[in-house]
Amino acid sequence: MSNIVLEVPDISCAHCAHTITSALQGQPGVESVQVDIPAKIVHLSYDESALSLDQVGAILDEEGYPVAGSHVVGAAPAPKRNVIPLTGK
Prior knowledge:
The protein has helices spanning 14-25, 53-62; strands at residues 2-7, 30-36, 41-46, 69-72. It is α+β, with helices and mostly antiparallel strands. The termini are far apart.
């Protein structure tokens, strides 16, 4: 099971949340959908062997809510590279 957060900037009201929830909850592999209207994000728990992230994006795009970005919940941040630490004297 994967837990992701989708950034959906066009979310603005309860109708948006209902449309998104209805569109995703009927899909195979979707365990839960939670829409945070003020933050304009969707928390999605799903089985990626049954539904791909590309399919999720296509479903939301078809409903008029394009996904601007996403990240996996609990994923470690990418390591910083070529960073020289500053030291004080």
